[in-house]
Amino acid sequence: MGCSSEVSINQSITSNFSENNRDPSISGDGKKLAFISERNGTASVQIRNIKNGSVVPLRYFSRNKPHSSPSLSWSGRYLALIVNNYNRKIIAISDRKDGKLYYIPLYGNKIPENLELSPDARKIAIEFSDNGRPQVEIFDLTQIIEPENHIGIN
Amino acid sequence: MACLSISLCSCGQRYIRPTSRINVLLKQLAASHSQPTLSKRLLATLSNKQEKIFIELIDIQTLRREPLPKLNSSEGQPITLSISADGKTLAVIRKRAEEYELLVYKIKSGKFKRIPIIPRGIPKEISLSGRGRILAVEINRNGKWDIDLIRLGQ
Questions:
Q1: Count of the separate structural domains present in chain A
Q2: Nearest CB to B130; choose among A7, A29, A107
Q3: CB-based contacts of A94: which residues, under 8 Å, 6+ apart?
Q4: Which residue of B22, B33, B145 is in closest CB contact with A20?
Q5: CA–CA separation, A72 and A89 (whole Å)
Q6: CATH code of the region B30-151
Q7: What is the mean pLDDT of residues A62-67?
Q8: Domain range summary for chain B, segments of one domain joined by +
Q9: Gap between the Cα atoms of A125 and B108, Å rounded
Q10: A29-58 residues touching B, CB cutoff 8 A
Q11: Is residue A127 part of a domain?
Q12: Residues 54-73 of B with CB under 8 A from A
């Protein structure tokens, strides 16, 4: 693999001849990678350990496909993504520590197109279409999930 | 079979709350915003003002717009971006003269570095780890999408 003194390229841990892999999200601690894997036309979320490429088991996400726009919190405790619920895109947040899944509706029939969790999972930034123009809004999650208070930065 | 613990919020009792001050500011700053990315304190987006797309960086707590010297003034159109959780580093994909470039930008110093894509490919989505040490890049090579992990120097 190519490298320079400052940059080293660790060729993909997701490589597989039969799949397209896209929409990467690294956990803040740099230990986990979430992404969307497309196999036979179906897009589903996966999490892998970056150190050895092993698959992290995910409950709940065998349905509600296609999935898109995964985002991990600092430790990877929370995974937010867009799922399909009765042909409508909605946001789901999985708490991998407590084994809970939250479906998050948005006011005003807004349809999420893209999202990102803050590292401490206190906020989520959501992109949606407003009369054909992309817009971004920030939402507070502290009434729904417990923040990650012990993240490795000030 | 483990008992499923699912908080299903589609009946309307647990909508998430918009954080109104930052959302009002976003609407005032530009006609549209896309590709949101969050550090612990900062929000970065692609903003469209008078049909020019540029990177906007805002402190969520103080609502102060952070300067990005050289990044928005240089040639090329940003396509997507990711900020590290510590708020020190931005990774940007930009299109410049029909070529796609991958940049890592230090917010405090305004210095940026081009990251080579080896083997050559077209980057589409990116994600930085919390301290900006690992970059995940979705890359198209010969029609197949996959994710490279790039370890960055300090």
A1: 1
A2: A29
A3: A58, A59, A60, A61, A78, A79, A80, A100, A101, A102
A4: B145
A5: 19
A6: 2.120.10.30
A7: 87
A8: 30-151
A9: 23
A10: 29-30, 33, 35, 38, 50
A11: no
A12: 60
- What is the interface pTM, i.e. ipTM, of the complex? 0.91
**A113-139 tens-digit pLDDT:** 999 999 999 999 999 988 889 999 999
Q: What percent of chain A has pLDDT over 90?
A: 60
A85–B10 CB contact, under 8 Å:
yes
Q: Is A45 among the domain residues? A: yes
pLDDT digits (tens, 9 = 90+) for B115-142: 999 899 999 999 999 999 999 999 999 9
pLDDT digits (tens, 9 = 90+) for B38-80: 999 999 999 998 888 999 999 999 999 999 988 987 678 999 9
- Determine, for residues A29 and B19 on separate chains, whether the beta-carbon distance falls below 8 Å: no
Q: Which residue of A has its CA nearest to B86?
A: A153
CA separation for the pair B8, B18 (Å, rounded): 19
Residues of chain B positioned with their CB less than 8 A from the CB of A123: 19, 38, 60
Calculate the CA A116 to chain-centre distance. Answer: 7
Q: Which domain holds residue A27?
A: 20-110
pLDDT value, residue B154: 62
